[in-house]
Amino acid sequence: xxxxxxxxxxxxxxxxxxxxxxxxxxxxxxxxxxxxxxxxxxxxxxxxxxxxxxxxxxxxxxxxxxxxxxxxxxxxxxxxxxxxxxxxxxxxxxxxxxxxxxxxxxxxxxxxxxxxxxxxxxxxxxxxxxxxxxxxxxxxxxxxxxxxxxxxxxxxxxxxxxxxxxxxxxxxxxxxxxxxxxxxxxxxxxxxxxxxxxxxxxxxxxxxxxxxxxxxxxxxxxxxxxxxxxxxxxxxxxxxxxxxxxxxxxxxxxxxxxxxxxxxxxxxxxxxxxxxxxxxxxxxxxxxxxxxxxxxxxxxxxxxxxxxxxxxxxxxxxxxxxxxxxxxxxxxxxxxxxxxxxxxxxxxxxxxxxxxxxxxxxxxxxxxxxxxxxxxxxxxxxxxxxxxxxxxxxxxxxxxxxxxxxxxxxxxxxxxxxxxxxxx
Length: 424
Fold this sequence. Notes:
Elements: E1 10-13, E2 16-19, H1 23-43, H2 46-53, H3 70-86, E3 101-103, E4 109-111, E5 115-119, E6 122-128, H4 141-151, E7 158-162, E8 166-173, E9 178-186, H5 188-196, H6 202-219, H7 224-255, E10 273-274, H8 281-303, H9 311-322, H10 328-340, E11 376-377, H11 380-391, E12 393-395, E13 406-408, H12 411-420
Parallel strand pairs: 6-7, 12-13
Antiparallel strand pairs: 1-2, 3-4, 5-6, 7-8, 8-9, 10-11
Helix pairs in contact: 1-3, 1-5, 6-7
């Protein structure tokens, strides 16, 4: 099938550019899956196979897998069939010697990959687990591939973890110096179609051609390198777009400036602060930028589970329910910044929501502007607007699969600093 992919036009599936297969190509692969299923289903315990297809946790023994060890059985009758028949890897091009362990330059020892293939001078590593096993289990599956790529135990930046039904493609990002997931695909809908025959729902059956298309694009020997290249470019472009969008709204919220037609608005932080007498415009600008950086930092604390998810929304809710005759900033945020995050010994007169919040030994929550403790924000609505704006994004230190929110990583703080310096 490889040669038929040459000069094919590319289309977008899931917003990421991939090669769209013809109906005949998809049908050909579907037939091969059916052949694999028929042979597999004759040799595996049918009741346990059904549970595996239903994502139930089960324990396989040699008696369930044709008197073979379950992992060896999975490799022989599922993974290798898919690798060689569908994904078109060449069995003669396996490059690894039959060894149990490997070690990197620092002497750290790791389980050796189950398969290694070289494609255009790029080494692709495969970790094969037992059918239905948890690929997120420590020291196996995804974790094993991450170790190979992170610690350079093998000179490779690409790895795949699979249990035959689930396939996860990972690569080492040389810029960010960490392993990232390119794609995760579960083939159960295809096998369920064969197992249940007419019992599968029409919506799932309709999506199987898309699933086959994606699986071949991301994992086949013919396209895996292009898939990773397109994924990286897509992620970079998406990151740039989201970062710029976020920054534009950020500037609008704090300074009231809009990029379109040099418009401005009074609904901004800078126009709603109450500052000490004789405060300079420079200090006011510094104050609103520092405030926003603190709120963004809190969102990253949520991602690290240092504080509970939705912390800022909970503050807003508590304030509205309390009916305190004061501003949101004075009653809640001033105490959070100066009495909670910035003090080892906390004041007893604090809202209940702050009881389990840790002390942060850093400079972000100290007074950074002259007489900063005397500042106030008289308009509660502008703070609520900002909190709602931040909640539209997922502030995360690591990329997440199937994330419906727009991701923002810690680089945003550096981007904001670089682009707001000329506004001070």
